[in-house]
Structures are given as C-alpha cells and as structure tokens.
Specification:
This protein is α/β, with parallel strands linked by helices. It has 11 helices and 13 strands. It is an enzyme of class 3 (hydrolase).
Length: 307
C-alpha cells in the first residue's frame, strides 16, 4: 500500500513542478484594476510557527517568523495598502517565533495600517498570541482558538537504552549544561529551573493578551489554563471581536481603513504552491492521508512552545 501511495505522490510532485514552472505565479495577486489605492494586504500564517524558514511540504506547512516579518515590513512600506488581514490557520509554535511576528505586527500598526486577524480552522496558542496584537479579531463560530499557555516536554529514554544495551558518558562544564538530556532523569533543581522558565513566558503571554484585548491581566488569567475555545465561545469571553469568515475580515479591514466599497486584495509573502495547486480540489484530504502513512518527522520536545 505504501509503495502505491509513494508512486502517486511522486507522480503528483512531477505534475506540480511542471505546472509551477509553466505558471510561475507572482508574489502579488490583486483583485481590482487601475491605479493601486485603497487596497487590503493579506498575509497567510499556516502550520507550526517557528523561527526556521517557511516551507510547504507535501503534507504539512511551516510558518517561519523571518518570512512573515518580512511580509509585514513590506506592507508597512507600501503606501497603497491601507489595511492588512493576517489569515491564521495554525495550532501555535515556539514562543520566540510568535513574539518576533507579534513585534513586527505592532510596528505595522504604528506605521498607520489597520490590522485585522482572520481565524480559519485553528488559531491557537502562538497563533492567538499573534492575533491578540491586531486591531480586531474575526473568527468563524467553529474556529478553535485560545489555548493560552506554555508547554515544554522532554524524553527520558533510559529504559530504551537499557533494553538495547546502550550507555552514555557525559563531560560538562557545569551542573546544568546537559539539562534536557534523554539519558537521565531531571533533578529537582532542574525541574525548578524549567518551571521558572515556563512561568516567566506564561506571564509574558498573559500580559500580551491583556494589552492587546484592553483588559486587566486578572481578567485573562482565568481563561489562560491551556483550554481551547470555539470561535463563538471566544467572542462571548471577549477573546475575539466578531464572528465571520475571511471575506468578512477583509470587509472589516477595509471599513476600518476608510475604503469605500469592496477592497482590492493584495497577497503578500511567500506563496504556498500546494495550496495554489490543490485548493478546492480535495487535495487536502489526499495529503492528510498520505502524510499519516508516509511521514516520520518528529518534533523537538526540548523547545518552549505556545501550543
């Protein structure tokens, strides 16, 4: 079965490359003609948010803070753009990456642009960190959002090493240099250090949401136990401003920016070739099945994550 799926995947890759080379889409797709004025920029944040480069694999995508920050700076420099919609479809990611994007989004707002966050299927944890910095947040009633919290995990592989007869010897300059090693258990002192790091970033998260939502931190803390909310629940709790889809977010951004009528849309940032090729064609279902059968990629558990 895997060989059949692998053959299909390779065939689709070849077809994708042929189409990509033939089409060569540009970075911007504007809905509208004539002189550029009164436009709304759109920046997509899809997949896990990391400090690595953005990328779109066959069955997963990754939102790199560097490329997204660059797109936000591009929006700030463009005088024709009156507003920007940040389209979020992400379960979260690393704390530092979300903070980098959030800081650049704040600079964009200070440049005079209106920023509206539009939530897709999921805009949780690190993605909510980013959304909290927008002027307005629009979510679908069934969007999963919230998950305000911080998590860090480590693997303890001592039992496995014992079964396969493997052993390690560590030389270190200080008692905490090998914190997080999978070859031994954490000490009580190390657990206290880890928890202090988690608590500090958690406090930063709450303060950021409180500032963005114009609330006291005491109002946010009861909602910040890691749970997720539907878009409708989030609106009732004041975590989002309006229920609606992507088009509603674009109209809201245009209205707040004083644009008359239907705003023209300009896509900013890196194109997702797989979204362009397979959107609306059932491709997402195919890639989801293929990914579950063929992907063996793991995650770095020794990273502090907002997810």
């Amino acid at each position: 079965m895997k060989k059949v799926i692998a053959g299909i995947v390779l065939g689709v890759i070849a077809l994708s490359l042929v189409i990509a080379l033939a089409v060569k889409p540009g970075n911007k797709a504007s809905a509208g003609a004539g002189a550029r004025s009164g436009e709304v920029g759109v920046i997509y944040i899809e997949g896990a948010i990391t400090s690595d480069r953005s990328g779109s694999g066959l069955w997963e995508s990754q939102a790199g803070s560097g490329e997204i920050a660059s797109a936000l700076r591009e929006a700030a420099r463009d005088p024709a753009l009156k507003a920007v919609v940040i389209r979020l479809n992400s379960p979260g990611g690393t704390a530092a990456a979300a903070q980098e994007i959030g800081a650049e989004l704040e600079r964009l707002r200070k440049s005079g642009k209106i920023v509206v966050a539009s939530m897709g299927d999921t805009a949780a944890s690190g993605a909510y960190w980013i959304a909290a910095g927008a002027d307005q947040i629009v979510a679908n009633p069934g969007t999963l959002t919230g998950s305000i919290g911080v998590i860090m995990e480590r693997l303890d592989l001592q039992g496995l090493y014992g079964k396969i007869g493997a052993d390690t010897e560590t030389f270190k300059s200080g008692p905490y240099k090998d914190m997080g090693s999978s070859t031994r258990s954490s000490t009580p002192e190390e657990r206290a250090i880890y928890q202090s790091m988690i608590d500090d970033i958690y406090s930063q998260f709450i303060d950021h949401v409180a500032q963005g939502r114009h609330k006291d931190a005491a109002e946010i803390r009861p909602l910040a136990d890691g749970r997720v909310f539907t878009g409708r629940q989030a609106k009732e709790l004041g975590l989002v401003d309006q229920l609606g889809d992507f088009h509603d977010a674009v109209l809201l951004a245009g209205s707040l920016a004083g644009i008359q009528g239907e705003p023209a849309i300009v896509e900013l940032g890196q194109k997702n070739i797989f979204r362009e090729l397979f959107a609306g064609s059932g491709g997402q279902t195919f890639w989801g099945v293929a990914g579950s059968l063929l992907s063996s990629r793991g995650e770095d558990r020794n990273t502090i994550n907002l997810k």
